[in-house]
């Protein structure tokens, strides 16, 4: 454990259609985009200690393809609440419960919560204005914080990384 944490917020990759919204799988394009973003994320933030992943099919598949792209993820925790309670406050509460042993945390989730949370964590000088349009599919925002997870209120925005394809 170190004194600085890294938080990565990722919107799932492009999904197709299914009988229910919860079961929507990734499209072929979505799978390839997630794989490529896995490579980018590995170069940008390194190994992920813990991934909190919405239990929906498209978020689980996104996480799987991030791994295929070379992103090392030490532990996974599938959270139905990231789907059912799709809001920034509920997600922030979940993050604040993360064990301090996790230095780098990835949260794979849905709109509108992913954009709302990224914006909420930003200080105005960190470029919050770039987040006001929302995170498109497979885009991730990442930042650092120098406080325990349970004290998370703001981060130092490191970047907003849309897919390059």
TrEMBL record:
InterPro entries: His_Pase_superF_clade-1 (IPR013078), His_PPase_superfam (IPR029033). SUPFAM superfamilies: Phosphoglycerate mutase-like. This is Phosphohistidine phosphatase. The lineage of its organism: Bacteria, Bacillati, Actinomycetota, Actinomycetes, Actinomycetales.
């Amino acid at each position: 454990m170190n004194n600085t944490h890294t938080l990565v917020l990722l919107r799932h990759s492009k999904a197709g259609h299914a009988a229910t919204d919860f079961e929507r799988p990734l499209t072929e394009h979505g799978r390839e985009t997630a794989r490529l973003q896995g490579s980018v994320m590995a170069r940008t933030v390194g190994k992920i200690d813990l991934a909190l992943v919405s239990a929906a099919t498209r978020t689980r598949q996104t996480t799987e393809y991030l791994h295929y792209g070379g992103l090392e993820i030490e532990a996974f925790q599938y959270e139905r609440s990231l789907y059912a309670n799709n809001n920034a406050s509920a997600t922030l509460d979940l993050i604040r419960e993360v064990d301090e042993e996790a230095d780098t945390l990835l949260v794979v989730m849905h709109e509108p919560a992913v954009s709302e949370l990224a914006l909420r964590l930003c200080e105005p000088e960190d470029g919050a204005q770039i987040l006001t349009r929302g995170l498109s599919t497979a885009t991730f925002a990442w930042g650092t914080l120098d406080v325990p997870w349970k004290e998370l209120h703001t981060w130092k925005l490191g970047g907003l990384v849309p897919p390059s394809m």
